[in-house]
Amino acid sequence: MLKNYLLTAYRNIRRGKVFSLINILGLSVGLTCCMLIILYGKDEVSYDRFHTAGNHIYRVTSDMVHEDGSIFRSGSTGMLPGPQFAAAIPEITDYVRVQNAYYTVKKGTQVFDQEALFADANFFSVFTFPLLAGNPETALTDIHSIVLSEEVAEKYFGKKNAVGEILELNTGEKFEPFMVSAVLRRSPQNSSLKIKMLLPMKFQQSQNDDKQWFNFFLNTFVVLRPGADPAAVTSRISQVFRKESAEQLKEMVSKYAFRDKVTFGLQPLFSMHLSTDYPSDNGLTDASNPIY
Predict the structure, then answer these.
(1) In this structure, are strands 92-107 and 219-224 parallel, antiparallel, or unpaired?
(2) pLDDT tens by residue, 215-267
(3) Which residue(s) pair with 175 in the sheet?
(4) Cβ contact 252:214 at 8 Å
(5) Which of 99, 103, 134, 152 gets the highest tally of CB atoms within 10 A of its CB?
(6) Residue 1: pLDDT band with limits 50, 70, 90
(7) 279, exposed or middle or buried, with CB in 10 Å at 0-12, 13-18, 19+?
(8) pLDDT of residue 152
(9) Is the dihedral of CA 5, 8, 14, 16 positive or negative?
(10) Phi, psi of 165 (to 5 degrees)
(11) What letter would DSSP give residue 186?
């Protein structure tokens, strides 16, 4: 039976070669487009979903309402919100701050420009980025430790194990030595964090320990306890912010006639990539748009 079907199809194709060619090409193009659309959509909605605790990770957002009613939306905070919110709100079990940076790196007589990120020491307990070498619990505990991605480690040290090796970073006035504490597997393509070089946030704080509620220059991620209500946590965040920032707000109003209203919110990790409200900056990459 199948043989007869194939034979009939073959004869029809031979009788109408041009018509058959048009149909086959049209079908092929249509199927190809459908497959590409499916693959693109699948990739877009898969961003950041490889993190084990991803369902409980939220980025702290900030809205600034101006006197004319316009709103400036940002995914940035300063140094204070993470530790202050975590200390005051039991539903927040952990926090991680991430900030981008660029450094001039020296290895021997060679000098390179290198993109980097600062992160708190618990970075690897919150985000799922496997290490090829080194201990994730201690990789960022020393103020002069440094974590390299596998491609960057190969760039500086070739195929040898980079852990324990020294790189010098220009910290402004001089080059300081940093020891490689871990090597990170290449960041997944569907990750909003593409890590090349990771430095301890403690080092950044030693350079600029910002204590201002109204500075916005890094990303703060918080981990909520399973079962916690994000809306209720957001309400608690507003209460903590109003209480802790009251004195600074008075000073801002007195010195600079500050009249804007600032509110903090929570954005689920899995919604960052396709967000049109809060930009991906300060180290986050690959922002997209759901309309695509």
Answers:
(1) antiparallel
(2) 999 999 999 999 999 999 999 999 999 999 999 999 999 998 999 999 999 99
(3) 170
(4) yes
(5) 152
(6) low
(7) middle
(8) 97
(9) negative
(10) -80, 165
(11) P
**Mean of all residue pLDDT scores within the chain:** 93
Place of tokens 């079908």: 27
pTM: 0.91
Q: Which H or E element spans position 263?
A: strand 261-268
Dihedral pair phi/psi, residue 110, rounded to 5°: -90, 140
Q: What is the identity of the amino acid at 212?
A: Q
Residue 144 token pair:
């002069």
Digit-coded pLDDT (tens) for 66-103: 989 999 999 999 999 999 999 999 999 999 999 999 99
In angstroms, how far is CA 289 from the centroid of its own chain? 16
Q: Is residue 126's pLDDT more than 80? A: yes
Strand blocks (E) in 32-150:
57-65, 71-74, 92-107, 110-119, 131-133, 145-149
Q: What is the DSSP letter of 276?
A: S
Determine the Cα–Cα distance for residues 270 and 97; give it in Å rounded to an integer: 17
Classify 99 as helix, strand or coil: strand
Alpha helices per DSSP H over the chain: 2-15, 17-45, 81-88, 123-126, 150-157, 201-207, 230-244, 246-256
